[in-house]
């Protein structure tokens, strides 16, 4: 039985090694039920964001006078808020805001942090020391406190919220990229690239950064969940999306005043945030396992 199990594992490994890197990753990801569930959750949110005008029952800002704080019913599946606005429609449109916050915030952190980490790790010496001490200073503050401070300084707006959350992510990408760069720059293929006259910029672009991609992809997926949570938290505090914009955090803040008599006003936006975070975390864990080079021998 043991021999058969080992033979079956090596057979699957040989099958996977014959695939392209992209298909190999998908094959490994498909074997993780939880990661597939996470991907399905994200797909549902993405489709809701794209087709919001077609699937939302009402306009998210439409006020139904006489139906304020109506409980879930056939007319309003998830009830209404204090202004008589349909909560389901606002949650659907809110997925646009939350996913946009995640994409832009993670993009800001990655676009700044990755080059900083690569330059620091490759150059070493004083450059490395200066960059990493700056990252250490940023990491000395709790992330959410730093995001609140930046958002409050920049002003109350959705764009400033995205920038604030993105800045918080910079140290993580810088440290991850620096660590990978330090381990790669001593490899033989990097020395060979230097020997044939490839510039430092070319080495970083063609040899260093491509080897950082697997780790960075996993980090970006997990940071999407954090960005959505931080975005909702800052909007809850009034530092992000402002009324009447449909955003999950601001919906929580508005509904908490009526929680005893209208539980649905805060519960359903909270569940939307929870499932979005769950989806990205499950997918990120699956990607981490699928991209782990130590697992490429056996599937």
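Sequence proposed for the structure above (299 residues):
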């Amino acid at each position: 039985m043991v021999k058969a199990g080992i033979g079956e594992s090596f057979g699957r490994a040989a099958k996977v090694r014959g695939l392209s890197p992209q298909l190999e990753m998908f094959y490994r990801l498909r074997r993780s039920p939880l990661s597939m569930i996470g991907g399905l959750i994200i797909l549902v949110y993405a489709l809701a964001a794209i087709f919001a005008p077609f699937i939302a029952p009402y306009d998210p800002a439409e006020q139904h006078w006489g139906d304020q704080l109506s409980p879930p019913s056939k007319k309003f599946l998830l009830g209404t808020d204090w202004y008589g606005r349909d909560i389901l429609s606002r949650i659907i449109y809110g997925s646009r805001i939350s996913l946009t916050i995640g994409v832009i915030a993670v993009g800001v952190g990655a676009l700044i942090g990755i080059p900083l980490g690569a330059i620091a790790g490759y150059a070493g010496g004083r450059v490395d020391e200066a960059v990493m001490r700056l990252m250490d200073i940023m990491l000395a503050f709790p992330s959410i406190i730093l995001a609140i401070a930046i958002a409050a300084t920049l002003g109350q707006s959705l764009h400033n919220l995205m920038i604030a959350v993105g800045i918080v992510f910079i140290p993580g990408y810088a440290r991850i990229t620096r660590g990978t760069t330090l381990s790669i720059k001593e490899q033989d293929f990097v020395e060979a690239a230097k020997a044939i006259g490839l510039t430092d910029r070319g080495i970083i672009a063609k040899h260093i950064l491509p080897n950082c991609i697997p780790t960075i992809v996993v980090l970006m997926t997990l940071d999407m969940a954090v960005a959505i949570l931080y975005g909702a938290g800052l909007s809850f505090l009034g530092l992000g999306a402002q009324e009447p914009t449909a955003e999950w955090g601001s919906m929580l803040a508005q509904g908490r005043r009526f929680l005893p008599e209208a539980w649905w006003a805060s519960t359903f936006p909270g569940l939307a945030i929870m499932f979005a975070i769950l989806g990205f975390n499950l997918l990120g864990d699956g990607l981490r396992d699928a991209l782990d080079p130590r697992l490429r021998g056996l599937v």
